[in-house]
Amino acid sequence: MPLLRTASASFISIAFALGLATASMAAASTAKGQISVTQVMAMLDQASSNPTAGQVLTAYLAGVGETAAIIIDLAAKADGSPLAACKTRIALDDKAVRRALEAQPKGRWQQIAATPLIVRDMIKRAGCALAD
User: Fold this and answer.
1) Are 69 and 90 in contact (CB under 8 A)?
2) What is d(CA 104, CA 56) in angstroms, rounded to the nearest whole number?
3) With pLDDT > 90 as the criterion, what percentage of the chain qualifies?
């Protein structure tokens, strides 16, 4: 999972560079260094009142959404047949992200990686079926 670790490190670096990160936010990554539910919820909460927080959130969610959509679109088995078929196009917005993350036990948000939850929610809402 080097790409995920790189994304998490980049997210934290961007937050620090933009002056958004506090000591508690920096500590909010999961034990494996992944972007936590706590971090994403903090950005969701700050986005409407802090333009920089909104930009960081937009960059993160755009990366997650775009990457998931590309993988679903391009994924194919060795014989070239599609690996996934979706009823609708994968989509992502802040309301869907908030709903997916709030469904997690609040006391564990710091230990739960946000990105897999967001991707699973996108796949579910798009009605995707994965081939065997």
Assistant:
1) yes
2) 22
3) 57
CB burial of 6-42 (b: ≥16 within 10 Å; e: otherwise) equals: ebbeebbebbeeeebbeeebeebbbeebbbbbbbbbb
Contact (CB, 8 A) for 122 and 65:
yes
59-99 confidence digits (pLDDT tens): 999 999 999 999 888 887 778 888 888 899 889 999 999 99
Q: CB count, 10 Å around CB of 132?
A: 4
Give the tokens for residue 16.
Answer: 């620090």
Q: How confident is the prediction for the chain on average, in pLDDT?
A: 82
What pTM did the predictor assign? 0.76
Residue whose C-alpha is closest to residue 58's, from 26, 94, 89, 109: 94
Cα distances (Å, whole numbers) of residue 56 to 64, 75, 77, 91, 92:
12, 28, 35, 19, 15
